[in-house]
Amino acid sequence: MIITLTTDFGLRDGYVGAVKGVILRLAPGATIVDISHEAAPFDAADGAFILWQAAPYFPPGTIHVGVVDPGVGSERRGLAVRSGGQVFVGPDNGLFTPFLTAEAIVRELTNPQLRLPNAAATFHGRDLFAPTAARLATDMEFDECGPRVRDPLRLAGWEPTFDGHWHGVVVHVDRFGNCVTSLPADLLAPGVQEAIVAEFPPIPAGRIYADVARGQPICLAGSSGRLEIAIREGDAAAALKLKRGATVTIREKK
Amino acid sequence: MIITLTTDFGLRDGYVGAVKGVILRLAPGATIVDISHEAAPFDAADGAFILWQAAPYFPPGTIHVGVVDPGVGSERRGLAVRSGGQVFVGPDNGLFTPFLTAEAIVRELTNPQLRLPNAAATFHGRDLFAPTAARLATDMEFDECGPRVRDPLRLAGWEPTFDGHWHGVVVHVDRFGNCVTSLPADLLAPGVQEAIVAEFPPIPAGRIYADVARGQPICLAGSSGRLEIAIREGDAAAALKLKRGATVTIREKK
Amino acid sequence: MIITLTTDFGLRDGYVGAVKGVILRLAPGATIVDISHEAAPFDAADGAFILWQAAPYFPPGTIHVGVVDPGVGSERRGLAVRSGGQVFVGPDNGLFTPFLTAEAIVRELTNPQLRLPNAAATFHGRDLFAPTAARLATDMEFDECGPRVRDPLRLAGWEPTFDGHWHGVVVHVDRFGNCVTSLPADLLAPGVQEAIVAEFPPIPAGRIYADVARGQPICLAGSSGRLEIAIREGDAAAALKLKRGATVTIREKK
C-alpha cells in the first residue's frame, strides 16, 4: 500500500520523520513516498498545486496525506476525500480543491480511533492524519472515518475567464522560475498566439523551449497540462516580475 | 527491517545516496527512511533534537543511523546504542544523548567486520555506520558490535533549572520560527502563566495557536512535549530575536 | 528492484512526486531511492558528479534515472546505458560520462512502448525516463530499448594533466565547502606534498581533517577517491575563493 506525503514541514526538523514513524508503526510494510515537504508555509493553494501535479500519476488506491495546515488546533475539520480511485487525508482548508470533483466523496475524521492517544493540539499531521492514512491502508473502511461532508472548503480562482480573450493567473512558480498559469494548455495555438503579461512585449507561443533562443521568453503547454510562461534556460518569474496571482492574457499574434 | 537516516549531509551531494546504496547492498529489502539530512552542519545538539522528535514514533526494532560528525577520522569512538527497543548507530559525540537512559546499553564499533573494505578516513557514515546498521538488520547480534561503553559522551544543558521560577533555554528553532525550549510542557498552565524572554512583553500561555490573533506571540505545549514560543502564522525566532540557547522563564501571570 | 533518482527538479514542486507515481504505477513494489534532486539546474556535470559519488555503492541490477536535462524537447537523444552491472536512464548530454567505460553498452530510447501516452514535450523525466526504468525493472529487456549508440556525448575535463607537476580542477563543491578535484587521491603523499590554489599559501597534505587545527586548510584523499581541499570545520570554497573549474596543482613540499 502506498501512502504519499505533501507538507510544508520542511526538511530540517524531525516532523516528517515522526509522521513516517507513526505510519510504519500502524501500517508495517507501507510504501511511504515523499511528494514534497517544501510547500510554502501555511499556503494551502501551493500545497494543492503540488498535489495536483503529482497525485494523478500514482496507482489507484494510493492514499495521499496532505498537511499544509495553518488552522491546526482550531475548529477546522479533518477530512478524508475519495476521488479518482485515490484517497486524500488532511485539513479542510482547500488543500484538496483539485480533487473535489462531482464524484468525490468527503468524510469528516470524527472517529476517535483515528487519533493517536495523547494527541497534541498542534500536530494533526502526526497524530490524526498519519494514523488515519495508516488505518485506511490496513484495517479500516473509508466510510468508517466519520459523517459525510457536503461543503468542503474550496480555493477560489482556479478557473480562467473569457471576455473575447482568455484571462488567467499565475498559479505556481516552479524552481526554475517557470510560471504555470490557470489557463488550460489546449487554449494555446503555437505560432498563432501570444501571451501578454504586464507591460512586457508579447510572448510568443511555442511547443518546446528550444523553439526560442537561450534567454528568450516563450509560452507553451506545460507538463501539467496548463499554459506556462518560461524563459529558455532562464528564470521567467524574475525576468518578467511574475508572481503567483499575476494576470496572463492570450490573444492572436498581431 | 526499518533503517532511518539523520545527518548533516544536506541534499545536494551524493553522500546520502552512497549511504543508501551501501545499506541496500548489505541488507536487501531494508526499508530506508529519511528523517532529516539538514541538521545544522557539525552540530550534534541539533541532530540530537531532530532524532528525539522523530525516533520515538518508530516501531520497536527500528535502527536509527545518525551522522553529524565533526570528529570523523579522529579518535572519537563509533557507537551502537540499544535504548527503548530501538538501536542507534553513529559517532560518540552526544548525538544520542536523549536515548542514553539508565537502561540503555552502549557498545563501541570495534568489530572489523562492521567496516567496509577500503573504508575512507573521512566518511564513516558510508563506510562504518551504514554497514553496521545493515549488518544489525540482517545477520549480526547487537552484542557482537564490540565492548561495552560506560561513558558515552552526553550533551550538557538539556535540563531546566528552578530558583522559585523555572528557567530553560531554547533548544531548537524550527522551520516556522517556532522556538522549542528545554522546559517540559507540563510546567505550563494555560491562562495562568506567561513566559519571559529578554526585554519583550510577557508572552501569554495558551493551548492552541488560534488562542491568539494572527501575528501575536503565544507559549504553548509543543508537539514534542516541551514548551514552545510561537507566533500565530508568524516567525517567533525573528520577531523575538530568539536563538538556540536563549533563556526562557515561566512565571505566574501578573 | 531498486530504481534511484538524480535530478535538478528541486524538492518544492510536484515533479519528483509525479516521476515516483509513474514508476510505482508501472513497477509496483519497486524500491525508489532519492539520490539527489538538488543538482545545479541545467548542469549535467554536477549531476554526473553526484551520480558518480553514489551509484557505485548500489547493488548490481540497480537502475539509475538521471534527469538534468536542459535540452528536453529538442533533438537530443534519450539513452539507456548498461555499465558495471547497473543501468542508467536519461538524456544524452554527458550526465553518464563517468559510466561510459569501454565495456558500457548504450542504446537509444526509440521503442515507442517506453513513452507514456500523451507524453509532454517538456517532461521526459516523467514521460520517458521513468517509464523506461519501470519497464526495465519489470518486463522489458535492455536490448529492446532501441538501437546501439556509439557516440554518446561525454563531458570534457574529467582527466588531470601532467607537466612535471599534476594539475587538476575543482569538479565539485559540496555542502560543507569541501572542494573535490579531478586529481586521483593516490597522487597524494600526506606530509610530503602540498597543493597550490591561486595566490594562497600552499595547503599541506594530510590524512584526516584532525591533522590540522580548526579553521586551517588541508588537502586530503576525499571519500570519493579524489584529492579534496578542505578546511577543518570550515568552508574551503568560501575561504579560498574556489569554484568549480578552479585549477589545483600538487607539488613536493618546499
Give the arrangement of secondary structure elements.
The structure is a homotrimer of 254-residue chains.
Chain A: E1 2-7, H1 15-26, E2 31-36, H2 44-54, E3 63-67, E4 78-83, E5 86-91, E6 105-108, H3 124-138, E7 161-162, E8 166-173, E9 179-184, E10 193-196, E11 203-204, E12 217-221, E13 226-231, H4 236-239, E14 247-252
Parallel strand pairs in A: 1-2, 1-3, 3-5
Antiparallel strand pairs in A: 4-5, 4-6, 7-8, 8-9, 8-14, 9-13, 10-11, 10-14, 12-13
Would you kindly provide a brief summary of this structure?
Three copies of one chain form a homotrimer. The first copy, chain A, has 254 residues and is of the alpha+beta class.
Protein model, in words:
3 copies of one chain form a homotrimer. The first copy, chain A, is 17% helix and 28% strand. With 254 residues, the first copy, chain A, is an alpha+beta fold. In chain A, strands 7, 8, 9, 10, 11, 12, 13 and 14 form an 8-stranded antiparallel beta sheet that branches. A 6-stranded mixed beta sheet of chain A has the order 2-1-3-5-4-6, sandwiched between helices. In chain A, a hairpin with a 6-residue loop joins strand 10 (193-196) and strand 11. The mean pLDDT of chain A is 92. Chain B binds chain C through residues 9-22, 24-25, 28-29, 32, 34, 41-42, 70-74, 120-123, 126-127, and chain C through 2, 4, 6, 11, 31, 33-39, 49-59, 62, 172, 174-176, 207-210, 220-224, 233.
Provide keyphrases for this structure.
homotrimer; 254 residues; alpha+beta; eight-stranded antiparallel β-sheet; six-stranded mixed β-sheet; 4 helices
